[in-house]
Amino acid sequence: MYRMSSMPPFFLLLGVLIAGCEPVVDAPDRTYATEEVCDQLAPEQSVELGTGSSVFVPLEAGDLVMQAWGPQGGDHVWGALRINGVFGGGDWRDDPDCMEGEGSICGPIAPEDAPTATINLWHDDTLVASTGDALSFQADQGLAVGIPAILRMPYSSAAMEWADPSEISQESIDEAQAADAAELQFEVTVRDACGAELTDERMVRIAIGWLDAVGVTD
Q1: SS (H, E, C) 35-70
Q2: Domain range summary for the chain, segments of one domain joined by +
Q3: Which of 42, 69, 115, 170 is the most buried (most CB within 10 A)?
Q4: Strands (E), the chain
Q5: Which range among 1-5, 33-37, 174-178 shows the weakest confidence by mean pLDDT?
Q6: Helix, strand, coil % over all residues of the chain, rounded to 5
Q7: 94 in helix, strand or coil?
Q8: Exposed/middle/buried for 208, CB within 10 Å: 0-12, 13-18, 19+?
Q9: What is the pLDDT of residues 46-59, one digit of tens each?
Q10: pLDDT category, 13, cuts 50, 70, 90?
Q11: Would you state the torsion angle of the CA atoms of residues 105, 207, 180, 190, taken in this order, to the nearest 10 degrees?
């Protein structure tokens, strides 16, 4: 089924490596996505969607995907990948405009041929959380962790937790309660410079934290 939705603004988070737009100077000995390289990778291609900010946590049907808070006050759920046969691209490099220090959230800049992941969390045809645009990532020994799918209204506790309960619409309450009680479809699409497109999905649950915080009960 074809689904389209508008993506909300989202922010960079620690642990996430997002592609920059500056040109990359490649090392002479780096590997490129040539036909030979891509043909060697093709038989091994696979992706498994899990969760986790710093380690890969596999997901079984019905597992809880935890809400997490970002350094800019928003909230999200973590996606993580176990991959094989995906072209990794060139070297990542330091961001020359990054201002280091407390609260810094910038990270390395991805090469143009880095693999990307798009992660969505669905309740039926309603988008609960999403990476928005495809995010570049790098894997360490076949694992990529800390990929945030940003929670949308009315599922985001960052947006709802401090609200006056009398000002929250019944529609928002009903939608949040329905997602809190249901199994949701957690899905990923990974693409690489060889033209590979790999997908995986898991049925998971999520606790909508603001429902308890504002005293909403069934």
Answers
A1: HHHHHHHHHHCEEEEEECCCCCECCCCCEECCEEEC
A2: 35-213
A3: 115
A4: 46-50, 63-64, 67-69, 75-84, 116-123, 126-130, 135-136, 143-151, 184-191, 197-205
A5: 1-5
A6: 15, 30, 55
A7: coil
A8: buried
A9: 999 999 999 999 99
A10: very low
A11: 40
**Block residue for tokens 């143009």:** 112
Both tokens of 95, joined, read 């961001």
The 10 Å CB-count burial string (b at 16+, else e) for 116-146 is: bbbbbbbbeeebbbbbbeebbbeeeeeebbb
Q: Please, are residues 188 and 47 in contact by the beta-carbon 8 Å criterion? A: yes
**DSSP assigned state of 109:** B
In DSSP terms, 83 is beta-bridged to 47
∠146-107-114 over CA atoms, to 5°?
70
pLDDT tens digit sequence for 15-46: 444 344 344 334 445 789 999 999 999 999 99
Exposed / middle / buried, residue 105 (Cβ in 10 Å: 0-12, 13-18, 19+): middle
**H or E stretch at 172:** helix 170-181
Nearest to 198 by CA among 81, 59, 79, 32: 81
Q: Other C-beta atoms within 10 Å of 106: how many?
A: 15
Name the residue with tokens 């490649």. 26
